[in-house]
């Protein structure tokens, strides 16, 4: 069968009923089709291009399988050439709605651009394919049709970016500049954008396009990135271009507030007296300085927190002002901060909890009890703390997800849902998510609820978790906190003597049970294990089972990190290692899992023990602070999910963080 005939079959299937067959999941040949799909995909990718035609009949035999368009894509994708343009065009025409279409379109357009098929490129181009292809389209459009006002407006948008554009944009920007469209104002504006984003190389490059009297802006941005102390004095800038120079001063003083806060504290009043910075910029710098001094436990931190805590202050200043006086256990000051804070801040769980703690400490017991009782009905970290303080059971506020059966059946039969399901089965998680996202963009709320139920039943827990938050069904606790990989978790938790609910809470916070998750730091898998951590555990830590040790010694460790069972055991082994370093306190272990055990030791009190709730709210790293709160709350929920009646927070609320001893 020729590729053209295969295409005809594909089109018939696409517009017919095959992809909408509700009984495909019950098809007795489904397992055979799955095996055949995996085999053909591997064959298509490996045989010489000259032999691809021998596989066309085999692909045709898969026409009733939901992933037939993906096999067809594999065939066309390996034959991207001008001679094969009819098949490529037909595929692009008839696969709208299939996400893999965009991949082929990008490849096709890049081929056309590389081989100078400009007319065909312009015919095939579609918006939304990225900056590189947009610049190709603009370049070819100008060469074919000239540059009108709309063309120049598009290029101006490309110019006003604080980063370097792709190389494909160079001829477009060059033409735009040489035709007099680059004004002094636009040149100065982009220098500021690049400076704010820390692109000093671009800032230096842009200097040549600025007028003579503005080139110093580029130099000042480079200087302030090298040494933020260069803007400590108002005299450091001439203020001949005040709008741009204010940006440099604000950026530099904010950065200096973290590096050299005492010097900023000395010089900020001079800036205030100079009148060269507007009040909102001074407020921003004051807030940064106040938080920096607080984290350094500087004697003047209270003074600066009071200065920063204005009606226009950001929420972060208010929470650090509260945390500071809580740390000092200055309970009357806590009440003052709560009273002065904006209503939206006062109503958060954090402020309500500490308001109640302060009221209790100053003897206003009835008021404290009323606040704690109300807070104890809520399902979150502070709600669980409040329930422990009131000696009542935690409130989980459960609500089942309401799903209409007919809507559910319709979603189950949807071609995109079927393709997503099969891709998920084949562990092709990225294309599966693309299909799922494309489907969800077209659904109403009730249909999205049905999709959540479907994902949960498939064991696609990360998409069920994300989906239920998007529908607003936050009380569907069983879906938000699934017992995913529970058998493996419990088995490994017992092996490493770790609480199963704790390990589930860590995995839920780390990855939402996305088995192929990769963080910006390259942490991988369910438990977000770094390759370097895994290597250390294998070679030095002496905590892993001998079975796993032998397995990981046999080859590159990275290849095992996306295997759920291996990743879980590595994560549990790391928890055990942290226990050896810090003891059995789950709060300290959770903090160390996120920030490292050296940091946790650095944060331990040096003179006397600190109540656990106070210590948690004063963890310097926001990410770690929120992480610990989430893990503790999640562990409480998983204790309930596992059928345990324990109140984790009864112990937590009574804990003291011990003094560090070497």
UniProtKB/TrEMBL annotation:
<keyword id="KW-0732">Signal</keyword>
<dbReference type="InterPro" id="IPR023346">
    <property type="entry name" value="Lysozyme-like_dom_sf"/>
</dbReference>
<dbReference type="GO" id="GO:0042597">
    <property type="term" value="C:periplasmic space"/>
</dbReference>
<dbReference type="Pfam" id="PF14718">
    <property type="entry name" value="SLT_L"/>
</dbReference>
<feature type="domain" description="Transglycosylase SLT">
    <location>
        <begin position="491"/>
        <end position="608"/>
    </location>
</feature>
<dbReference type="Pfam" id="PF01464">
    <property type="entry name" value="SLT"/>
</dbReference>
<protein>
    <recommendedName>
        <fullName>Lytic murein transglycosylase</fullName>
    </recommendedName>
</protein>
<dbReference type="GO" id="GO:0004553">
    <property type="term" value="F:hydrolase activity, hydrolyzing O-glycosyl compounds"/>
</dbReference>
<dbReference type="InterPro" id="IPR008258">
    <property type="entry name" value="Transglycosylase_SLT_dom_1"/>
</dbReference>
<dbReference type="InterPro" id="IPR008939">
    <property type="entry name" value="Lytic_TGlycosylase_superhlx_U"/>
</dbReference>
<dbReference type="InterPro" id="IPR037061">
    <property type="entry name" value="Lytic_TGlycoase_superhlx_L_sf"/>
</dbReference>
<comment type="similarity">
    <text>Belongs to the transglycosylase Slt family.</text>
</comment>
<feature type="domain" description="Lytic transglycosylase superhelical linker">
    <location>
        <begin position="411"/>
        <end position="471"/>
    </location>
</feature>
<dbReference type="InterPro" id="IPR012289">
    <property type="entry name" value="Lytic_TGlycosylase_superhlx_L"/>
</dbReference>
């Amino acid at each position: 069968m020729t590729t053209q005939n295969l295409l005809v079959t594909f089109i018939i299937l696409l517009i017919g009923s095959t992809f909408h067959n509700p009984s495909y999941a019950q098809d007795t040949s489904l397992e055979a089709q799955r095996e055949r799909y995996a085999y053909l995909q591997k064959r298509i990718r490996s045989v010489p291009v000259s032999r691809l035609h021998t596989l066309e009949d085999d692909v045709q035999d898969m026409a009733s399988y939901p992933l037939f368009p993906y096999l067809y894509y594999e065939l066309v994708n390996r034959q991207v050439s001008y001679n094969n343009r009819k098949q490529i065009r037909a595929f692009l025409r008839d696969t709208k709605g299939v996400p893999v279409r965009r991949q082929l379109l990008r490849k096709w357009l890049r081929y056309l651009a590389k081989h100078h098929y400009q007319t065909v490129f312009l015919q095939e181009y579609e918006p939304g394919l990225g900056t590189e292809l947009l610049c190709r389209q603009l370049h070819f459009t100008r060469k074919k049709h000239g540059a009108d006002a709309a063309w120049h407006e598009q290029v101006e948008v490309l110019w006003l970016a604080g980063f370097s554009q792709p190389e494909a944009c160079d001829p477009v920007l060059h033409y735009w500049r040489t035709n007099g469209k680059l004004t002094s104002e636009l040149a100065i504006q982009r220098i500021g954008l690049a400076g704010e984003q820390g692109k000093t190389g671009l800032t230096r490059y842009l200097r040549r396009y600025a007028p003579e009297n503005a080139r110093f802006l580029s130099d000042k941005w480079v200087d302030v990135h090298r040494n933020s102390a260069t803007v400590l004095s108002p005299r450091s800038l001439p203020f001949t271009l005040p709008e741009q120079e204010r940006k440099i001063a604000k950026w530099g003083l904010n950065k200096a507030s973290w590096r050299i806060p005492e010097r900023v504290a000395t010089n900020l009043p001079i800036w205030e007296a100079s009148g060269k910075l507007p009040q909102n910029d001074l407020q921003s710098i004051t807030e940064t300085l106040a938080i920096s001094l607080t984290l350094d436990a500087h004697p003047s931190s209270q003074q600066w927190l009071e200065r920063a805590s204005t009606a226009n202050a950001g929420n972060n200043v208010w929470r650090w002002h509260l945390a500071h006086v809580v740390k000092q256990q200055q309970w009357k000051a806590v009440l003052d901060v709560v009273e002065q804070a904006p209503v939206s801040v006062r109503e958060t769980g954090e402020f309500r909890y500490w308001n109640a703690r302060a009221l209790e400490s100053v003897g206003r017991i009835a008021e404290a009890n009323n606040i704690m009782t109300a807070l104890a009905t809520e399902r979150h970290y502070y709600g669980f703390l409040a329930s422990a303080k009131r000696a009542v059971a935690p409130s989980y506020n459960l609500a089942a997800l309401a799903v209409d059966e007919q809507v559910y059946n319709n979603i189950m039969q949807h071609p995109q849902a079927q393709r997503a399901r099969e891709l998920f089965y084949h562990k092709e998680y990225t294309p599966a998510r693309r299909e799922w996202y494309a489907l969800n963009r077209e659904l109403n709320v009730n249909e999205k609820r049905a999709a959540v139920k479907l994902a949960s039943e498939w064991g696609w827990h990360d998409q069920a978790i994300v989906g239920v938050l998007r529908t607003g069904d936050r009380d569907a606790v069983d879906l938000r906190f699934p017992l995913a990989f529970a058998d493996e978790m419990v088995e490994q938790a017992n092996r490493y003597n770790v609480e199963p609910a704790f390990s589930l809470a860590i995995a839920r916070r780390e990855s939402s049970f996305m088995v192929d998750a990769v963080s910006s730091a390259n942490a991988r898998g369910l438990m977000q294990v770094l390759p370097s951590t895994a290597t250390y555990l294998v070679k030095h830590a002496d905590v892993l089972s001998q079975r796993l040790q032998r397995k990981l010694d046999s080859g590159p460790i990275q290849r095992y990190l996306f295997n759920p069972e291996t990743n879980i055991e590595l994560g549990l082994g790391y928890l055990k290692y942290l226990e050896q370093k810090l003891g059995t306190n789950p709060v300290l272990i959770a903090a160390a899992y996120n920030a490292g055990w050296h940091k946790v030791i650095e944060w331990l009190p040096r003179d006397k023990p600190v109540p656990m709730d106070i210590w948690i709210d004063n963890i310097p790293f926001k990410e770690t602070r929120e992480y610990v709160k989430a893990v503790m709350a999640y562990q409480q929920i998983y204790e309930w999910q596992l059928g345990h009646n324990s109140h984790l927070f009864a112990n937590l609320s009574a804990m003291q963080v011990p003094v560090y001893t070497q």
